[in-house]
């Protein structure tokens, strides 16, 4: 099982509502650089937070890869989501891309590798992590790479 976790690209710093912050031009370019690392990977689905910047990020990746299936928008990938709740959603999937936000991204990567109680991974905007294991086991997934654009 492989799992890719992508933090959204750079977004505008302010908006009336946080969930409506859009990607900047720089953020779009960051996402394209990260998408290049997914070329040829056996993705089966793209799951994304409903926040605009994550939706835009997921769509850029989908377009760059020519990925046919629709993006699956899920509430469990918002910034403050609990990594344990995210892991519960991943039990029966493999080879998926998650597009989300910090602090969830850093906390989830740490949780999947080390279990609870460890500091979060540091992930820049459009940072892309690849984790692998024969099955989803909390605290035992291997971080194959963490690429920053």
UniProtKB/TrEMBL annotation:
Q: Which Pfam families match?
A: His_Phos_1 (PF00300)
Q: Entry's SMART domains?
A: PGAM (SM00855)
Q: What is this protein called?
A: Phosphohistidine phosphatase SixA
């Amino acid at each position: 099982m492989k799992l890719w976790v992508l933090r959204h690209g750079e977004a505008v710093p302010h908006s009336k509502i946080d969930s409506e912050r859009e990607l900047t031009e720089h953020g779009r370019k960051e996402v394209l650089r990260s998408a290049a690392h997914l070329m040829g990977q056996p993705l089966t689905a793209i799951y994304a937070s409903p926040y605009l910047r994550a939706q835009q990020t997921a769509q850029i990746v989908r377009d760059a890869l020519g990925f046919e299936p629709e993006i699956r928008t899920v509430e469990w990938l918002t910034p403050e989501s609990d990594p344990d709740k995210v892991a519960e959603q991943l039990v029966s999937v493999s080879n998926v891309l998650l597009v989300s936000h910090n602090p969830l991204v850093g906390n989830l990567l740490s949780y999947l590798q080390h279990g609870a109680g460890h500091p979060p991974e540091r992930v820049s905007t459009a940072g892309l992590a690849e984790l692998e294991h024969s099955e989803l086991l909390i605290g035992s997934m291997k971080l194959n790479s963490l690429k920053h654009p």
